[in-house]
Sequence to fold (584 residues):
Amino acid sequence: MAFLRNLLAAILGTLVAFGIVLFMFFLFLSLAGSTEQVRIQRHSVLDLNFPYPISEYSGYDAEDPFSVLFDPSMGLNEITKAIAIARTDDRIDGISLGSSYLMAGLSQTRAIREALADFKKSGKFVYAYADFYMQKDYYLASVADSVFINPAGNFDFKGLAAEILYFGDFQEKSGLKMEVVRHGRYKSAVEPFLGNAMSPENRTQLQELLGSIWESMRAEMAASRDLQPDSLDRIADQLGARDPQRALATGLVDGIIYEDQYEAKLHRESGGSGDKPERLPLTEYLRYTKNKRQYEGTDRIAVIYAQGEILYGSGGPAYIGPEQMRKALRKARDDKQVKAVVLRINSPGGSALSSELIWREIQQLRQNKPVVVSFSDLAASGGYYIGVGADMIVTEPTTLTGSIGVFATIPNMSGLAGKIGINSEQVGTHRQSVDYSFFEPMSDDFRDVLRQGIETTYNTFLQRVAEGRNLTLAQADSLAQGRVWSGTDAVRLGLADQLGGMPEALASAAGLAGIDTYRILSLPKYKSGLERLMDDLQGVGAKATEKALEEELGADWAGLLREIKAQLRQEGLQARLPFTLKIH
Fold:
């Protein structure tokens, strides 16, 4: 009986596996058939909605149907490409912008905003509609010719704020703490583990950072809405636009209408009569950009994306690894058609060793071809480190820039072990052979060794900054100490060359290379959609646990636990953003 049972189980397993393979085969065929050139009707409206998180570069491939299905993010490069192509496409009459909770950084939002402002120069319209506007949503929507909101909606406009959690008492009560060694008065990445209150230095840099970012946003919104900048400050102070009626009265929106009424407006604006808005030809941007080139020519500019935390390892869509970056940089160096490189960086930093390895590879590349760096939302610590040696640095006004400093955090549970009755004993052959134990307080000898390593790494970092930005070591040190600057301040202080986004960086790269026309080669190449699908299936248990954690604790507390977990898994000396900063 056991033999028959095992035989039937094997047969059933084989049939199930065969069924899954057959299903995936037909799914692939059906999706592959959907990648044909999309037909665009005349008087179409390009529909820009952002239901997924926006990354710098999603690795989306229009020819890969599995990427279409399973890529969880939207690439900023594809969004801006769609807008740029639509600018000169006579089949596209305008753009409809709709988003009620934009999952993007401020600099990414500004990049889309700048692309829309350039689109408007063609004489075509941009309309925006949302059921409600969060502040970042409105920052983007304010560039539109007309902004509309649902009558039952809400409007968030109150200025910028940031919040940091501190774990001093938690460590004392639990007995679980982080041992910290750092360099830099402003290196507050570890400050939450050192006490229960914000230091004056950290409060100063945060206040100045938020003020600089708000000043840039306010100026752009005021210009788009034909308002005075100080009037926006009054509206924010008094919450004077907290509902649709007040937002209309202050001039922040142009109309309070329902979605069907908005669609009728789009229909009329794009050449229709308005009586049958259901026939409005809306074109989704990902389908629109398929098989279309934004640039022409035989020469190429390689755009290499460095996005996420810097770790020691291979690398991928969510983190930067020296192995993958080395391959991408060498491919650009060895490709004779590539005349220049733009390195697009969006990173809070991470491993100091990996940052140095990537920096070195960029210096090798610069011996053959010009390298221009474009900073997105974050160019902090290691993120700044890898770009500081480029020929030119272009940064957005809202970029978090600098954080030139080094620290190390090591978890220690000696207090917790004592509370729960655990004692650890060590035996070694030499004085330093035990090194460090999680169950014993950090020794003075070990702390001194660690501090020496941090000082050495900091001095190397400082040397890279001084050489790359043509500063003395003393000048570089005065701008360092772990302090974070806005992109505007970074240009003023000499940490970057000019304000701008990818268009300005590409123009600078083309100028340095002496070329007028070019195509873009996007690197690195990530795994295919099918490969990522198989990885996702293998990790389905971990994802289910993550989802259950969020449902049980809520997104904020689950995020806090993820942050603590990230701190615990840090290895080696860190050149990292001085805090987990969420601007809202």
